[in-house]
Amino acid sequence: MNNNKLQNYFFLAILLISFSLTAWLLWSYLGIIVLTATLAIIFSPLYKKLLSLTKKESLSAFLSLLVVVIIVLTPLTLFSLQVLKEAGELYHQITQGPDNLLMTIQAEIQKIFPDFSINFDAFLKQILNLLVSHLATIFSSIGQILINLTLGLLTLFYFFRDGKKLEKALRDLSPLKEQYNNDILSQLKMAINSIVKGSLLSAVLHGILIGLGFKIFGLSNAALWGTAIFFSTLIPGIGLALVLIPAGLFLLYTGNGLAAFGVLIWGVIVNLVLDYLVTPQILKRNMNIHPLLVLLSVLGGLTVFGPMGILMGPLILSLLIALLKIYPEIALT
Predict the structure, then answer these.
(1) Which residue, of 170, 186, 211, is where some domain finishes?
(2) pLDDT tens sequence across 47-100
(3) What are φ and ψ of residue 31, in 5° steps?
């Protein structure tokens, strides 16, 4: 009996050490693994459809990968480069001297509150420096980019092709009942779809469409404004107004009253269409997660994981919500 216990403890110790070393080896690629696994879950209906047509797993996985590259990776890369360019230009302008608009705003406020004083210049410099440093880190090493890109594409290909086998292996390793395994996996997939397809995709659509409106109405640095829209849309209730109103005031200040009115009307129309027509269709049959939780998970993810935290934070939240959904059933057994 004691010998059996000793064998079990020894085996668990070796298993724990091996698991820890493996996790340490793969930690640098955790972002790639999580990102590609998420994309594989989101685009799994496409893969299943292609598989039903081609009857070949590798071909279906390759075609699915090609679609992801065309509609996700390429636009995201081009947009990130544009944001980096605009942020660098704006940062350069601010660091060269005080911004007249900011000084004018402060002067107008001081007419009402004489003691009011805030260093807008330093505040904007800090924000833009943070943005430039994060994006510059991503694009700083061409060699590392190519390695990560190749690894990511390979990982996504294998997730498409062998995802079911991996899922079965995880089920076999789980000590939980098969019902609980099914519930956890289904809730996790539903939570991922809700957050990524719902909140994040809605924020992306807001940023793209309203940013396009900014560009049409002559607002400079439209990509930066669109990025601000992305984050502000995650704030419940007043988020969009935090960007639309300053954008309208800026255009009004520069003498473009008609453009200012157009930006505000365009933003309101886009927001109404997306919030009441598009997003409900996206979230149909998915979990309804409060946008404040999504916002906090995105901000926390950015703090802990850097740029990849935009996805990592919500995914960790997805896992927690999935487990909390199952917990009452497990606790009662």
Answers:
(1) 170
(2) 999 999 988 999 999 999 999 888 888 877 777 777 777 766 665 655 554 445
(3) -60, -45
Q: What is the pLDDT of residues 252-286, one digit of tens each?
A: 777 777 888 888 888 888 888 877 776 666 655 55
Residue owning tokens 């607002």: 219
- Note whether 244 and 119 are same-domain residues: no
Is 281 contained in some domain?
yes
Q: Which domain holds residue 298?
A: 174-333
Distance between start and end Cα atoms, the chain: 30
Q: In whole angstroms, what is the distance from residue 194 CA to residue 201 CA?
A: 10
Asked if residue 322 and residue 181 are part of one domain, the reply reads yes
Residue bearing the bigger pLDDT, 294 or 9: 9
Amino acid, single-letter form, for residue 48 = K
Task: For residues 304 and 31, give the distance between their C-alpha atoms in angstroms, rounded to a whole number.
Answer: 12
Domain end call among 118, 135, 170: 170
Residue 93 belongs to some domain of the structure: yes
Helix-helix angle 178-192:30-42, to 10 degrees: 90
What predicted TM-score, i.e. pTM, was given to this entire model? 0.66
